[in-house]
Amino acid sequence: MKNNIQNASPLVERLFSLDFFRGMTMFLLIAESTHLYAQLIDPQLEGSLIYTIGMQFHHHPWNGLRFWDLIQPFFMFIVGVAIPYSFSNRIKRGQTYAQIRRHTIKRSLLLLFFGWSLYCISIGKIGFHFQNVLAQLSVTYLIAFLLMNKPARVQIIISLLLLVLTETIYRLFPVEGFNHAFVANENFGTWLDLQYGGADLRGHWVSFNAVPTTAHTIWGVLAGQLLMSKKTNMQKLKTLLIAGLIGVVAGYSLGFVTPIIKRICTSSFILASGGWTFLALAFSFWLIDIMKQRKWTLFFAIVGMNPLFIYLFANVGGADFVEHIIHPYSMAVFGWTGTAIAKILTSMSVLFLLWYICYWMYKKKIFIRI
After folding, report:
1. Which pTM does this prediction carry?
2. Residues in contact with 282: Cβ distance below 8 Å, sequence separation at least 6, in sequence order
């Protein structure tokens, strides 16, 4: 792996709302590694507002949609938004399309390697699973890049065809025992994973999710191209809002026919979550790039400047290492609040220290890329 430590100024106008959106998403992702969300639903807190909020930071067990179910779509989408900006910068630096394509393929393979490595570390043995976000992103990122120079209508059609393909396979898969389209562990996705020993029977996640979620990254590319266009900011905002509303309405309407299931990424889930993602970007764009409310956003943007590094660091034991160091002190300081609250405050302290690592790298102008 070759890490480039860069401090060069960007060659296209910086989209501050993208910095914020990416940073907020990464902040929420690394918060999970501190066990904060697990502490929020401590049985001692059941029935409280904290517990109710905490449930929104856990995936829905099957048919339904919670806030945490939107985080991976956010991440996939944001990567797509950044692709046209990165491509433009590399072209202006004198790179050819062939060079950029080689870099994209290399980056895709590295994302797959990191995704597999995280899984192997978590189970303590070699295994090649595609269920985690990095492994799936390696697929969606490459496909979205290869489609980027196609007309917008072609990109939209292909993204929708991926959803039609998903819907068709799940509904018509003929293998006995796995022909229940939307039943946990009895669907096409589980059957496919069983063929190579990669099934997640307890969590019900499936590797085939990389196919329908490619739509999120393609839509991100389209959003990035829109934001780089010569349209006025209000025209851009209007387009993002319309796209978001269409996705939300279509997704929830289709939900009456096809359940909204994050764990197997049904077409209704992709549409609904994609709609919310467009709306979230629209809100960020309005607040930050139109209304110019930027000062407070730096807190999150700092995390988004080293997203892959902090995600890997937090998930390969960095967060647990920090927690191990500060746990005795935090429990001594916060112990009077009760065990459940003290654990929450400990996790928040770990999260702050992870953020501070990003802040230190930002101040030193260290930005790790692949």
Report:
1. 0.92
2. 237, 240, 241, 244
The set of residues, in sequence order, having a beta carbon less than 8 Å from that of 49 and lying 6+ positions away, is none
- How many Å apart are CA 25 and CA 28, to the nearest integer? 5
Q: What is the DSSP letter of 178?
A: S
User: Which residues touch 174 (CB under 8 Å, ≥6 apart)?
Assistant: none
List the domain boundaries for the chain. 4-369
Q: Which residue has the tokens 């112990």?
A: 335
HSE, CB side, 13 Å, CA atoms: give it for residue 213. Answer: 33
Number of Cβ atoms within 10 Å of the Cβ of 75: 26
Specify the DSSP class assigned to residue 149.
T
Alpha helices by DSSP H, listed for the chain, are 16-33, 36-40, 49-55, 71-92, 97-123, 133-147, 152-172, 188-194, 214-228, 233-254, 267-284, 298-304, 307-313, 319-334, 339-363
Task: Output the tens digit of pLDDT for each of the chain's 370 residues.
Answer: 333 333 333 445 668 899 999 999 999 999 999 999 999 999 999 999 999 999 999 999 999 999 999 999 999 999 999 999 999 999 999 999 999 999 999 999 999 999 888 877 766 666 677 888 999 999 999 999 999 999 999 999 999 999 999 999 999 999 999 999 999 999 999 999 999 888 889 899 999 999 999 999 999 999 999 999 999 999 999 999 999 999 999 999 999 999 999 999 999 999 999 999 999 999 999 999 999 888 888 899 999 899 989 999 999 889 999 999 999 999 999 989 999 999 999 999 999 999 999 999 999 999 988 7
Identity of the amino acid at 299? F
